[in-house]
Structure prediction request, 397 residues.
Amino acid sequence: MIKPSLRAFIIISVFFLLDLIKPFGYFLSVEFIFLGLIIIALNESLAIALVASFLSACFRNFFILNGSAVTLFEFLFICLLIQYIRSRRIFLAKPQQLFIVKGVIVFLSLCVHILVNSVQLGLFISFFSFQFLIQSICVYYFIDYLLNQKALPAYH
Amino acid sequence: MYLPSKLKVKSFVLIFISLFLLFFTFRGFVRYLIFFSANQFLHYPTRNKQHLVELKQKNLELILKLARYESLYQENQNLKKALNFKTNTQYHLIGAEVLAFSPSAWQRLIVVNVGEDQGVTKGLFAIDQDGNLLGRIVEADKKFAYLMLVGDPDFTASVFIGQGALGLLKGGVTGAQVLYVEDSDNIKLGDKVWLKVAQLSSAIEIGKVKSLSKTDDSLFWNVGVEMFQEDVTFNQIYIVK
Prediction:
């Protein structure tokens, strides 16, 4: 059984590497490290999620030109928001409702991310934002499905 | 007569809309995946042989061109001497490999493995193996440098269109545009978009004109550009110094 903190660190590291090497180029408009943050915030405790959000923001900022502290605040905000929604106990619903609730949380987080990046850029690119949103949600469900396979350590 | 229930119709519409959204956003990715797989598995046995033949042919063409250019160069040097020219431009290419991409989906930025120690400075242009523009160095450290690709929203460069129309190339994640084009009389669809680097005697091609538009309240034309360099899985670039 892998410790939760180690599991979170492995997820952050692997997703960060995926973002760096971009095996599919720019055809896949997904930020894996942001999805990793959402997965950890949805499944781990508050302390681990906060540390993961801090590390994710730092990793992301290291390789971005003119990276600012906005990323750090954004990631922490998203982490706290997801943890707050978790604390409202809506995750005790049926699996189908859980599926939809998680999708809505991911959707809202991605919208915040798109908004922050668009404001930083000073430009809103509608088609790219839509593409980013749809692809990220699909990739999130795919990763969530992989992580919840019975062959892997329990993760839900 | 069989009539589908309302629930089945709603499910069908929902499934159809989901499939349409998925197809619409993933088409570029699926296309890349299919072509990449086909290239690897279907053409791999004959690819190397064909590539060798092509390289030999290209090598021969280059040898012939080089011989011609050497004589032209000599003639040029003689003329410069005769006219007492003082300037003499020379260039060389610095090969570099891609180390990493920017993790942000809104930036088109790569990190290359050459820096100030190899003579790379801010503002130098980079080209691919076909001589098409890739981007420009925006920051250089001692051992590595940041290259901003043409697709980055912050990328700008003065470019020529066709025979001489001038404009400002503005990058974008969904495609580049040339802005502030005053006169569109000499521009037609398919014209090449290129830029001139001081060190190079020939132009660096960027793409070709795919659209030409102007709004009623604007003084300038907007030119949509179809890039020659679309493959972003390259790992070798050349910096022009």
